[in-house]
Amino acid sequence: MTGGRPRSAGGRRPGETLTRDAILEAAMESFTAQGYSATTVRGVARAAGVDPALVIHFFGTKDGLFDAAVRIRDIPLRGLSEAVEGDPGLLGERLVRRYLSIWEDPEAAPLLYAILKAAATSEAAAELLRHFMTEEILVPIAKRLGIDHAETRATLAGSQLIGLALMRYILKVDAIAGVPAETIVRAVGPTVQRYLTGDLTLT
Amino acid sequence: MTGGRPRSAGGRRPGETLTRDAILEAAMESFTAQGYSATTVRGVARAAGVDPALVIHFFGTKDGLFDAAVRIRDIPLRGLSEAVEGDPGLLGERLVRRYLSIWEDPEAAPLLYAILKAAATSEAAAELLRHFMTEEILVPIAKRLGIDHAETRATLAGSQLIGLALMRYILKVDAIAGVPAETIVRAVGPTVQRYLTGDLTLT
């Protein structure tokens, strides 16, 4: 069964790739349905019909498994980048509007919930969240605007967006959760706009 | 040992109060050192030298234990309320400055870390965090300013403050964590100021 068989791009045998995919699918199912803390390598192995040792062999730890499982999904936050198109003076509002619509999309929300909740207990999840919000989305936007201190500006914007999701979707504070999305867009859009393009003294 | 012995204000016998206090001390020690997820009723009982059944009898669940343990501490965020004194135009900056100094106080920080991290996995911790940031601190400030929609304004300010702590102290994103506190105060102060006192269309 070895020898001249074709290998996938990563140098893996086709059967190995199928097994990995089955494990990652079972892992994502568990992370989104039960959360990070309640997910175990043993439970994922059982759901995927493999030995727990194989999960460890492929992914090392639960953190490694989380990281790999999240990365194969198309993280819905990527859609945020499209907000850069349009009137530059309304970039903040467009970003917040799109961000809320992603959190309110039943397809996308479970993965975001899983990542945000896991970030509190897992270094890997925290790093993943940080990486996505800043390096992959907000820093490129800030750089494209050609403004100084792109990283700090992007991280300030990210801090507001993550805090907003926490209050509205995780803690479900009525004063914010019970308000129409467009009201939030008008309140929070200018904050994001100022962080990304405003006159900040960041030295 | 029962009979005519004096009882504490809550109607408890002195010995019972001592046992409760020992359990709460052991619980807080575990919640701050090991975090919410890793803390168990059994472990707290062992550290306090009592039977786990007694912990359940007093506090019901781990959530109940967390809630009681945090409430006996003087939550350091109360100090935020003092920021209301002074130039009203600089309220936002004073709030952010004081908030950062609390997070950077080695006495106060472990409890705040424990609460913020626990909020992601525990409904009780999330409710506690929400309650403190909004009802106990920010809503009274907003109401004292006599402005409309005090709850929504306070929660918007809270969303920025919690997101900021997450980025700077939990995720430790270098672009924000590596910047002097006063730089953050100047960047984020106007956001909090606008949420609390600015012209927002909240209807």
CATH class of the largest domain in chain A: Mainly Alpha
Domain count of chain A: the total is 2
What characteristic shape of chain A results from the CA principal axes?
A: elongated
Low-confidence stretches of chain A: 1-9
Q: Sheet with the most strands of chain A?
A: none
Structural class computed from helices and strand pairing of chain A = mainly alpha
Overall pLDDT of chain A = 85
State which percent range the strand residues of chain A make up.
under 5%
Q: What's the tally of helices of chain A?
A: 10
What does this structure look like?
The structure is a homodimer of 203-residue chains. The first copy, chain A, has helices at 14-34, 41-48, 52-59, 62-72, 91-103, 109-118, 123-144, 150-170, 174-177, 181-197. Chain A is mostly helical. Chain A folds into two domains: 14-72, Arc Repressor Mutant, subunit A (Orthogonal Bundle), CATH 1.10.10.60; 76-197, Tetracycline Repressor, domain 2 (Orthogonal Bundle). In chain A, helix 1 (14-34) crosses helix 2 (41-48) and helix 1 crosses helix 4. The model of chain A is unreliable at 1-9 (pLDDT under 50). Chains A and B meet through helix 6, helix 7, helix 8, helix 9 and helix 10 of A and helix 6, helix 7, helix 8, helix 9 and helix 10 of B.
Q: Topology, pairings included?
A:
The structure is a homodimer of 203-residue chains.
Chain A: H1 14-34, H2 41-48, H3 52-59, H4 62-72, H5 91-103, H6 109-118, H7 123-144, H8 150-170, H9 174-177, H10 181-197
Helix pairs in contact in A: 1-2, 1-4, 1-6, 2-3, 3-4, 4-7, 5-10, 7-8, 8-10
